[in-house]
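Input chain follows. Return structure tokens only.
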Amino acid sequence: MGKSLIFILIAHLLFVMGASAQDPLVEAGIYSLPSKYYGKISYKVGNLGAQMDKRTTKYLRKIQRQEKRIYRRLWVKDSAKAKELFGNIHNRYVHLQKEAKYRAGRLPVLSKVYNGRLDSLSTAFIFLDKAGPGASGLQEKLKNGINNLNGLQNKLDEAEQVKKYLKERKKLLSDQLQRIGMVKELKKFNKQIYYYQQQVLEYKEILNTPSGLEGKLLGLLGRLPGFKNFFADHSQLAALFNLPGSTAGNNTSMQTGLQTRASVLQELQSRLGSSNGIQQMVQQNIESAQSHINQLKARVTQYSPNGGSSDDDIPDFKPNRQKTKPFWQRIELGVNFQNTRSNNLLPAISNIGFSVGYRLNDKSVLGIGLAYKMGWGRDIQHIKITHQGVGLRTFIDWNLKGSFYLSGGYEMNYNNAFKNIEQLKHSDIWQQSGLVGVSKIVSLNSRLFKKTKVQLMWDLLSYRQIPRAQPIIFRVGYSLK
């Protein structure tokens, strides 16, 4: 009896060990990822969806305000036309957001906005959720992730519904307002619509940008034949096309209501006869049409600010690509250095500046800065750290061509040595500087510094300073972001 029990226990242990060794998820290292890993992906996706919702609301308010301005101007010219075109503007845009959410939640799979990375992540989370419990707390994070991924898909679909409405609204107002000479007001309205379209496009690009979190998970799952088969059957892409290995059936034409190539050829042969040249003629016409479509796409791509294809209208103005970026992405942090040798009166000084710039558009940056002058002593044998001055700076850089910029700035400098903050309150000691010059920016392959900025500046106000400061200033700066 005892030997039999021992034999059963050993056999059970070997069976469990064998089953664990054969578990493809274990072999692929999926369960080696901590559960918080999935939580981070879920949070990132949920945050992106919330940002999209917030931005959509913001742009719709801007467009609504622009419509109200047009309405007031049109009312002066033709009150009846103003009522006909605009009606209750506020209620219409409130209804638009509700209608977009309603329609987005009821779209068939084939009508949804497709995003490859979102599809891969959604399918991966569903696959892992169906695979089993895994690590402790993993199931809850997977379900939260699935909800956030579905929520982001809905936000993309909502944005697409809003874009369709705005496109129709733009066409209607363009037809009506151009007739009565309100072209200027119409351009402002169209500009807001264009920036909303670009904002949606930018969020799609953010979603498509590879990151370590999603890339590692999808890389591990990509090794599993089971996941490949699951993706071929259950992904959004599988609903659009019959992927290799899919068991969902091959009759996609019946799902989409489209005619198959065979049915088209059969119809042509019944009308024109069973000529061997019919298929060749059809193929030539298809290739000709495809070539023409590609030419049109290339022309649209040429004028697209992102260099990619888009179904949005080509703008009739020069777009500012910075407008669609969040505030923090338009901020540029930097440091710069300027060294002065020691002389009979002053020690060797390092002028260290810290700057915060705001990118106004693709060509110009406006910013402020703070400078600190550190004294090192007379020479290396007589090192003594002292406070030799501070400065307040404003600056602007405007791109001339390529990596060259026209730079200017106004500065207030306290050039005397000091020991405490109280000494800096004497405003009559501060000296003014007006700088103008040229900067060159060179990109760096560094984790800390992104760009090097070399400046050659002329101080226009140096000739009024007592004692007179050097008129030519050379600075080297580094961009942290």
